[in-house]
Amino acid sequence: MKLDEQLKSLFDEVGERCPYKLAQHLGITLHYLDLGEHVCGFYQNSPLGGRYIVLNSCLDMDEMQTTTYLLLQHHQAHGELNLSLGWNDINTFKRVERESVKYLRMVVDAFLAIKVKKQT
User: Fold this and answer.
1) How far apart, in whole angstroms, are the C-alpha atoms of residue 120 and residue 105?
2) Phi first, then psi: what are they for 57, rounded to 5°?
3) For the whole model, what pTM was predicted?
4) N or C: which end of the chain has fewer CB within 10 A?
5) Could you read off the pLDDT of 12-52 as tens digits, one per residue?
């Protein structure tokens, strides 16, 4: 099963697409700290068995959600490895998401144009 499908399945189990509730569902503890201006958050797999996501308390809600979502993706793919995310990571993810939406819109527009052309 692909990573996106795994996350969708987990979101279905939780009942909504909330990264905070998903983290809780997976047994990952969330903490909020001032991490300065370069770190958005990090995932820590403790040698004592705990798993943590620490979010920069200076982020706005959208940035916290994006950071949490990306760190949950990391947990699903590489849960034993620690990871830190900075602004470049978050901005790259957002840019890729925007480009994906543009591409999907182009595909839908092309499909609809072909369908309209066939009907006339």
Assistant:
1) 23
2) -65, -10
3) 0.71
4) C
5) 777 777 788 888 888 889 999 999 989 999 998 888 888 99
